[in-house]
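Holo prediction. Input below; ligand is fe (iii) ion.
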Amino acid sequence: MPEAAQRPAVTTRSLQRSINSVATSDGAGVKLRRSIGASPFLRHDPFLMLDEFYSDDPDDYIEGFPAHPHRGFETVTYMLDGRMQHKDSGGNTGDLGPGDVQWMTAARGIVHSEMPQQTEGRMRGFQLWINLPAGEKMKPAAYCDIPSERIPVMQFAAGVEVKVIAGVLGEARGPIHGLSTDPRFYDVRLAPRAVFEAPLPPSHNAFLYAYEGEARVGDARSTLGHRSAGLLSEGDAVRIEAGDAGARVLLLAGIPIGEPIVQYGPFVMNTREEIEQAIADYQSGRFARDRVARIPVAAGG
Ligand code: FE
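Structure of the complex:
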């Protein structure tokens, strides 16, 4: 990367901590694995949660996520296999297929459902929750559905391919940018023993999630196991190397918010009083009366 070459000194981020994902279920019994957010002590500001769902057995996912609320943060759904339909309280509906992403700013409130659109075959994907700063928690809800073909894919040397879902990477600009946490969301595919190296701003917290194979991280080549999240140290670059079987790794980075978090299920606010208000607003039907804006998808590339 030209930027990296111009820098006098690069500090490659090392693997600071591994978080093994744990099997759990959510919604109406959808089986999934949770790493970030499996407990309140396992957040990585601004990231609140990362779930991976994958199964070839419809009994594990078919009941989906019936109508439920969110307030105070953003949800990002990234499908790898299968289809998921969503409907929300603003009257919007959408259908995500393989490679598609939904970026939803729940902010002051939304009620929606996320339901698999298949009765057989494999369902695989991720849901990431990103916090919002206090000043943005009560802005109107909005979302966009991003078709796979609008998401740039960068080919690097020797068996390295990176899908840029959010933020910039070299010349590529993902369809999601301009948010206050400046999220970077890359899906990195590595051939056996291939190496991905890129600059990453020192202002950002970062973590990896190895969803196929395992990865060796940083100059020390510390092993990040299959289906584990790896929190990265401070630094201004990242280095990921695949094992002998190759690897697929999510790389997430964002500017930490540094505010107190009070979470009650799908409500994430700064104080207990705000949580009580969220519950009262939801119970009185206020969420369902709010408009939900559809954000136009910016051109990637
Ligand atoms: Fe949801």
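The chain is about 5% helix and 50% strand. That is the main takeaway for now.
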